[in-house]
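Obj: model holo form, ligand = (S)-3-Hydroxyhexanoyl-CoA.
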Amino acid sequence: MPSINDVTKLDIKDNIAILTLNSPPVNALSSSVREGLSLGIKDAIQDNNVEAIVLICEGRTFIAGADISEFGKIPKGPSLFEVQEGIENSPKPIIAAIHGTALGGGLEVALTCHYRIAVPSAKCGLPEVSLGLLPGAGGTQRLPRLVGVEQALKMVTTGIHLPSDKCLKSGLVDEIADEGRLLEDSVTFAKKIISEKRPLKKVRELNEKVIAARGNTDLFSNYRKSIARKTRGFLAPEYNIQCIEAAVNQTFDEGIKIERDLFLKLINGNQSAAQRYFFFSQRQVAKIPDVPKETEVYSIKEIGIIGAGTMGGGIAMNFANAGLPVTLVERNQELLDKGIGIIRKNYENTANKGRISIEDVENRMNLINGQVSMESLSTKDLIIEAVFENMDLKKEIFSQLNTVAKEGAILATNTSGLDINEIASITDRPENVIGLHFFSPANVMKLLEIVRGQKTSKKVISTSMLMAKTIGKTAALVGVCPGFVGNRILSQRQREANKLILEGALPSDIDNALFDFGFPMGPFAMSDLAGLDIGWNKETSRGETIREKLCEDGRLGQKSGKGFYIYDESRNKSSDPEVEKLIIDFSKNKQIKRRIIGNEEILERCLYPMINEGFKILEEGMAIRASDIDIIWINGYGWPVYEGGPMFYGNTIGFEKILEWLRKMEKEHGSDFTPSPYLEKVVEEKLNIFN
Ligand code: 3H9
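Output (holo structure tokens):
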């Protein structure tokens, strides 16, 4: 079979040219793929025997987009536009044969083909928005011409992957092939096109669906309103909408110009750089240098969970959602019934919102089996302890597990900060003990910190990483230290926020600054949501912090209708003059002179110490890489993805500037600001922490 280059080959059978791409892992449009496509199309057009061309891919997918790793580098070979022009202007029909996913630039190539055929399992989408981009190869102009404006708006602003049947219905593909027979069915389809003398359908010339929306300004303003909350702070969704507006109101060529301009603005901007970094980091975090992916794993078929409280219940739901049976153990029947009742209510709420069916509720509930004896855990492959944070209690449970659990069972604790080595030491199998730190609400939050104890075996680590994937979590492997990675960094922000309200800011000043930065909520609103009494003890409370005072006054947060804020029945918050007076009096008693504190200072004070802590964590080897810290903060704490996480953000600001700030603050305010020696080294030696 004649090769065009190392990733493309051209084969001619019965007057049909088959141009095959094979560039693992996802046939991204690298320079060699573009070159192969360009040459292959030219050769096929020049060959007099060829009447139609089928473009098909080997491996797991059709073209999954531009090669993101090439962004920012000097382009080589033919541009994507040249390739597309060659396809669209071909005098012979070109058919894109789609399996796997036709995404981004991949779908944009398919949109310049004259026809598209896909297998039932295929999906098509323009997910550029997730990379802080818009489809920059004509996608925003061609897609609405095929699927209509509303569907196109949805696709470009959410990045959804549309399944084959919906692609057919919306006009995005012309024909469905039988699963596993894509090549044969594409050739048959190509022959049909030739015999029926079907025209060369150029999507750019189809105007009916875009003209239908012309003058309908409500369509766009309503759409903007409908996504405003979800897309707050992001540039790309708005730019995508502007491109679709251009498709409706301008000519194709004018629309392409607008698409190009806005694409260049996005690709050269910080948000897209952060989101592209996130894309690769999200994949990198799964790679553990000393635990390669071939490492042996335990088979996890049955799970045991100890504690049917909020955490235990949420964790159980994760496994039931993935179809795995869970035994949930509580101290007594009453607590067990309560916990299981809450799980059912959660599922029913989800069903009421139409996200799952009533049948799903029952199927999942049937997978959760409540028990009141530890012996019921004797056959489980993975046992997760999720009782409250008390070392003695955890040790007691692990000592029982040591007797009860079968050989080879993984014994996990959901502690959010206790010493896992100490917990493991109570067993005679510390190599099987690991931390699985789920985040609340455990059935919703994407993040899982997997905490590696001193003696945790590689087999237990690789099993835990695989298990995380099975239940749809993004797992980050971290080491044992107080608060692990996420909460350890959080405590820096909390400390500074608490200090700032005594120095002159109000809780709403801090929360607004961080909300405007892009967090879903600030630290005080978050504390109110979690409950101010977490870790508070009435007996030992001496009114020494604002938080203690609030708890002593019965202001426990949202659950009691007031905390740092006051809440109405719908849980809308407003500032409370009583709290402001309490804070001002507190400053006075402590002889702290209050002053005006601006947003910039709030951000520096809250965020820079977090970055400094990140360096300490890296220095101690508690996180594998800087990007893992960012993954933890984006997935677990709502750091805006378009700011890339604390370490990426620190780099954007400049580590040198942050070091300077820390040194100045250390001189004026002491050791809370002592710079990490690793940060100093990185600045002095100009090291790149992202390699
Ligand atoms: C675009 O097209 C712009 C155009 O509009 C305009 C141009 C002018 N490039 O996710 P996986 C790597 S923007 C480079 O684990 P899966 C990935 O890093 C692009 N590399 O597999 C990983 O590497 P490693 C629009 C890429 O089966 C490996 O492939 N397209 C790209 O779970 C396997 O990936 C997108 O945004 C890429 N485009 O999922 C689609 N894609 O093994 C992005 C993947 O070293 N890709 N890699 O860690 C995806 O959504 C998923 O990868 C996909 C497969 C669904 C395709």
